[in-house]
Write a structure and sequence with these properties.
By secondary structure, the protein is mostly beta strands. It contains no helices and eleven strands. A hairpin with a 4-residue loop joins β5 (about 45-50) and β6 (about 55-60).
Length: about 120
């Protein structure tokens, strides 16, 4: 079965940096796109950044210029480099992927989520 596992969250002071990683595993044939979402307490989950299999990227206005999304296709891994962090970046960050996988002799497509990693920006 397909699984997304995030790492790299934690507590950081305002102005600091963190790097999140998300590795997809399982019988993956191809990944169409990967991205990061976040959800703060009492708020809806929102897109932070996404990257397609061609390398095109998309960012939320609130993080553009501070965050950078990248991916390593050979490792089925997506990264989120977060710089100049602010208290309003505090949230649970979730990895998301659109992909094709194989089960037996059949192929399937699906959208998958990681379990989430907490990022807290506070002095």
């Amino acid at each position: 079965q397909v699984q997304l596992v995030e790492s790299g969250g934690g507590l950081v002071q305002p102005g600091g940096s963190l790097r999140l990683s998300c590795a997809a595993s399982g019988s993956i044939v191809s990944i169409y796109g990967m991205g990061w979402y976040r959800q703060a307490p009492g708020k809806q989950r929102e897109l932070v950044a996404a990257i397609s299999n061609s390398g095109s990227t998309n960012y939320a206005d609130s993080v553009r210029g501070r965050f950078t999304v990248s991916r390593d296709g050979s490792k089925n891994t997506v990264y989120l480099q977060m710089n100049i962090l602010r208290p309003d970046d505090t949230a649970v960050y979730y990895c998301n992927a659109d992909l094709k996988y194989k089960r037996g002799t059949d192929y399937y497509t699906g959208n998958y989520w990681g379990q989430g990693t907490q990022v807290t920006v506070s002095s």
